[in-house]
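Researcher: Next entry: Glutamine--tRNA ligase (Methylovorus glucosotrophus).
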Amino acid sequence: PVAPASNFIRHIVERDIEQGTYASRQWCGEPGDASTQATGQPDPAKIRTRFPPEPNGYLHIGHAKSICLNFGLARDYQGVCHMRFDDTNPEKEEQEYVDSIKDSVQWLGFGWEAFGHSHLYYASNYFDFMYRAAEYLITSGNAYVDQQSAEEMRINRGTLTEAGKNSPWRDRPAEENLALFREMRDGKHPDGSMVLRAKIDMASPNINLRDPAIYRIKRATHHNTGDTWCIYPMYTYAHPLEDALEGITHSICTLEFEDQRPFYDWVLEKLAEGGLLAHPLPKQYEFSRLNLTYVVLSKRKLIELVDGGHVSGWDDPRLPTLAGARRRGYTPEGFRLFADRIGVSKADSWIEYTILEDCMRETLNESAERRIAVLDPIKLVIDNYPEGQSEDCFAPNHPQKPELGKRTVPLSRELWIEREDFMEVPSKGYFRLFPDNTVRLRYGYVIKCTGFEKDADGNVTVVHCDYLPDTKSGTPGADSIKVKGNIHWVSAAHAYAAEVRLYDRLFKEAHPGSGDRNYLDDINPNSLTVITAQLEPALKEAKPEDTFQFERHGYFVADKKDSVEGKPVFNRTVTLRDAWQK
Ligand code: ATP
Ligand code: MG
Ligand code: MG
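Model: Predicted structure:
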């Protein structure tokens, strides 16, 4: 594999390694609820990054960018990328999501085993530390309990052009704040009646520094800590602590967190002053999130698509979830190539969906064996071929990889061919079947079209031909007759009639929901077509997730969920760039 192109984050990492920014760090051991105590051992990892999803949904293609970036840095610079579940929000998190997220990260080819440890962490394991750190902020005069209503707090926060107003509770003595905060923890106050706020600057031009809330009261059962807590830390307070406890060096997030960086640094500096954390501290860096045309990359919208029944579930092959992409037949190699190709920058932009499709084509072209499939079948009868007889033809499994060998494809008197491969009256430049024309049956004989039959509606139902016995592919006579057309076929007596799903884009607009449209109104009503196709017999043995190129059509995968042994169902992953080669 080619090394990914450099980018500004790689430059920062290389500079930090060269300057030894993190060389003095000690390995923190297993960060648990209590301990941030360094072990006295030097940290074996040169850098530590993390991938910190909230387990409140399935991962999507945007997350793949973040995964490839964070795990890719660890892979390339002798570091570790922590798999961390950011589960500080008790209400929306579920085990199902935890499992699917782990599965997707591993499927993409990454893992969290390094230096003899499994670096799988849960932010909720640090609730005790986060609480102690909050008490420290109170006693050091850096936090206070505010009893204003949510509405008052919103108004007093001010605006971009107008400074905020100090809360009447801002100068409450530390002992009172501490007592109240403990009462909050002990369940003495109703939800929403008070919050703990950092005491920074209500006149700061950065609104995020106008005394942000760091703890709120919320009576909710947490999937990990149960009912132990009725107060929970806010994300912007919890996240820097999680990073610091785990010894993260480069905390990489998307651009919308840029304005939070001063608060990230503030929290860590205050706790370092108090001896609760040690220098060198983690640093946050922002990159632009992935925006991809023809899809939506937002958990909220994906949840709506699933719950609203617009798709069959989280792993619907049309969804841009990683679970859906996997069922669609997209490859981990394709995603890694895509991440390298789009790069990492701070410029917001839209990436064309075709770039992702090209990456899938490129990787599948390498890996997928070739097979023959007739998607829109009509009969071809070779009238001069003996009835009841058949013979073997030989088709290479991969044209660029002779080592993958050939398979036998049976030929007999009646074949299935594509409806498009016959024209009663050929248009200009049409080299396939029409009356009196000769073409090659790929891997078989040259045939000459002798006639056709139509039904009452004028649709062609059967095409007739004769074959030229000396022209079989792979025999000395194969080149005796030159033909311009080369068509694929499947023996009707041997074919496997299979369910094949042809997917199109889920949205018909490049930017779903742009302007004043609702993105749901941009759904493509024809994103799924189910057909019965005639496949070469070898495809009957396909195992779930086996990928193939169906010659001339595109890449297909045996569906992971709906295939049964001896009766696989196929999903079209992506069409070939040039669908009709001659
Ligand atoms: P969404 O915006 O879809 O709800 P999220 O940001 O809330 O996603 P998290 O679970 O918090 O989802 O994300 C985990 C990580 O993935 C974060 O570090 C986040 O920055 C990153 N990430 C999420 N969406 C994208 C995207 N479109 N492009 C790049 N990285 C992303
Ligand atoms: Mg989030
Ligand atoms: Mg989000």
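Model: Note for the record: DSSP finds twelve helices and 29 strands in the chain.
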